[in-house]
Design brief:
Blueprint lengths: L2 H11 L15 H4 L5 H12 L3 H19 L3 H5 L5 H10 L3
Helix pairs in contact: 1-3, 3-4
The structure holds zinc ion (ZN).
Zinc ion binds next to helix 2.
């Protein structure tokens, strides 16, 4: 965990989304302006602080599948392209998925 990411997440919980070193907020609201509910944002921040990757991934995958649906992308088959969560997020961030 880095201070920069923590600051980004804390600002995001406050409703202020921005990119940090090429990284999107967990809900990509810095790019598409579509914020998750405050409840979910707080849940994610708590999970981040205790390194609860499972909860973080649930929030991220929920967001990604919502975005994918709105773009007409089949998220299940796209998920198969990535060998890990990090790889998936990298692909998603770079627009390859
Ligand atoms: Zn972004």
């Amino acid at each position: 965990m880095t201070d920069k990411v923590l600051k980004q997440l804390e600002a995001w919980v406050e409703g202020n989304s921005y990119h940090e070193e090429g990284l999107c907020c967990p809900d990509f609201s810095c790019c598409n302006g579509d914020l998750l509910s405050l409840e979910v944002r707080e849940l994610y921040l708590r999970a981040y602080k205790r390194n609860d990757v499972g909860t973080m991934w649930s929030v991220e995958s929920m967001t990604l599948s919502k975005m994918a649906k709105s773009r007409g992308v089949d998220i299940e088959s796209q998920l198969g392209k990535a060998s890990s969560r990090e790889e998936f997020l990298r692909l998603a961030n770079s627009g390859e998925i």
